């Protein structure tokens, strides 16, 4: 039996358990003390970096045995998720309800993307084939995305009756305020 398969699966599972524990002990209490928009934005930021999936093309060139179609599917799902997350942040910073809609779209998109990536990985026998940066992404970043999207869904459901925070755009510089006072 290839020892790389249980090593990768075990590392992913351990990371998932650690991230869930961290979320329960630290992140959930922290989120509860924040305005709704601020809490959602904090959870969205990790998704903005999902474009790290573009690394799959370098991994493929270096011997990771994923098909071109499988690599494209991963990139489209993750880069799409990154764009949705960034747009949701921009809208939530302006207290726009459309930001909530994009958060829900991101939850559905991420759940679908995760399912399709697992299915594709099984079909292409990729478990245990990753090395280097690809292994690190699969073992650390993917579980962080999974936990984050779970927390995002929890925030969307549990705080659905709360209004968004006051406008989260940066305040004007002090010099601008002084000019307006004169």
Concise description?
Helix content is 75%, strand content 0%. It has 182 residues and is an all-alpha fold.
Task: Describe the structure using short key phrases.
182 residues; mainly alpha
Overview of the structural elements:
- This protein is mainly α.
- It has a domain at 37-160.
- Helix content is 75%, strand content 0%.
- It contains seven helices and no strands.
- Helix 1 (4-32) runs parallel beside helix 6 (132-158), helix 2 (36-48) runs antiparallel to helix 6 (132-158) and helix 4 (68-93) runs antiparallel to helix 5.
- The longest helix is centred in the first third of the chain and has 29 residues, at 4-32.
- The radius of gyration is 19 Å and the shape is globular.
- The N and C termini lie far apart (77 Å).
- The relative contact order is 0.18.
- The model has no long low-confidence stretch (mean pLDDT 91).
Question: What gap, in angstroms, lies between the N and C termini?
Answer: 77 Å
Tally of contiguous helical segments? 7
Low-pLDDT windows of residues: none
What oligomeric state do the depicted chains represent?
single chain
Fraction in beta strands = under 5%
Q: Would you tell me the overall average pLDDT?
A: 91
How many individual β-strands? 0
SSE inventory with pairings:
Layout: H1 4-32, H2 36-48, H3 55-61, H4 68-93, H5 97-123, H6 132-158, H7 174-181
Helix pairs in contact: 1-6, 2-4, 2-6, 4-5, 5-6
């Amino acid at each position: 039996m290839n020892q790389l398969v249980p090593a990768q699966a075990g590392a992913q599972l351990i990371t998932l358990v650690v991230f869930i524990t961290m979320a329960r002990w630290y992140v959930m209490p922290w989120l509860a003390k924040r305005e709704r928009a601020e809490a959602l934005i904090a959870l969205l930021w990790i998704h903005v970096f999902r474009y790290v999936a573009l690394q799959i093309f370098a991994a493929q060139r270096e011997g990771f045995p994923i098909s071109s179609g499988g690599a494209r599917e991963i990139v489209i799902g993750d880069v799409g998720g990154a764009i949705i997350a960034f747009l949701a942040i921009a809208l939530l910073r302006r207290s726009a309800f459309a930001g909530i809609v994009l958060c829900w779209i991101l939850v559905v998109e991420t759940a679908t993307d995760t399912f399709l990536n697992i299915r594709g990985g099984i079909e292409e026998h990729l478990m245990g084939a990753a090395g280097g940066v690809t292994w690190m992404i699969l073992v650390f970043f993917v579980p962080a995305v999974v936990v984050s999207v779970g927390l995002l869904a929890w925030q969307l459901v549990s705080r659905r009756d709360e209004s968004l925070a006051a406008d989260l755009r940066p305040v004007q510089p002090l010099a601008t305020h002084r000019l307006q006072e004169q």
